[in-house]
Amino acid sequence: MAENKTLPTYFCRNCENPLALGEDIISKKFVGASGPAFMFSHAMNVVVGPKIGRKLITGSYVVADVMCSKCGEPLGWKYVETFDLRQRYKEGMFVLEKLKLTKRY
């Protein structure tokens, strides 16, 4: 019998607002201000702040901070633009810090 693997839904740790689906995780190997972070192809119920230039571990980017739409908790950032062709896959992706999330199956 095949195993049915259910993927989690990720929620804001502060207010339980749903933020992202497990099927949208691109990578679990990111680091945010509070530690480990996940890159998602999509996020929901978030507010995207203004674009700003930021120097990150892998180079210079234009990013926008991302906050929970319900409680305003800072969650991570969205990659808006990169200047390195090798990093272009990150554009449009969301990085949400693990410490700011809870997950349920």
UniProtKB/TrEMBL annotation:
Keyword vocabulary terms for this entry: Metal-binding, Zinc
Cross-referenced PROSITE patterns: YIPPEE
Ranges of residues in domain Yippee: 8-105
Superkingdom of origin organism: Eukaryota
Protein family according to the UniProt entry: Belongs to the yippee family.
Name of the protein described by the UniProt record: Protein yippee-like
Organism: Camelina sativa
Taxonomic lineage of the native organism: Eukaryota, Viridiplantae, Streptophyta, Embryophyta, Tracheophyta
